[in-house]
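Quick one from the shared queue. A colleague (R.T.) flagged Zn-ribbon domain-containing OB-fold protein as missing a structural entry in our internal table.

Convert sequence to structure tokens.
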Amino acid sequence: MNDDNERLPNTRAAAQKVPPKPLPRPQDPIEQEFWNRCQDGYLYFQRCGSCSTFRHLPRYMCAKCGSPEFSWERSTGKGTLFSWTVTHQALHPAFAEDLPFIAAVVELEEGVRMATRLIDCDRDTLELDLPVELDFEPISPEFRLPVFRPDMNRREKR
Ligand SMILES: [Zn+2]
């Protein structure tokens, strides 16, 4: 008998191995397009072809005017901190090594809000409307996620 089988299930080698971080699972081609553009290192949002309103999450119709027309426009990557929480408990084992981390909602200059992560940020720096800037964090060899960090140059100019 293998020694590992004599251990309690949660102490076996397989249970101790950190699983990979879960990747987004796009539900449709528009959402897939959003993530594909992120892999190129740019953040793009849909912009309504009728009323020019930016939108996020990716969707087929403008929430303001109902138009299905849109184009993809590159974000400036600049925004402000709209909301956050400091997470001390990993709801998925892949995130345990990152604890504590800051789950945030950022409001971009384009007017859309985005759920994301704030990196390179001391908790003492956290404040509403903190200027933040875009970066990308690799979460697997072939996938990177848009994240934000404090933009201290813009913060000091306020
Ligand atoms: Zn519209």
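Residues 47 and 54 are 4 Å apart (CA to CA).
Residues 48, 50-51, 53, 62, 64-65, 67 surround zinc ion (CB under 6 Å).
Added to the table.
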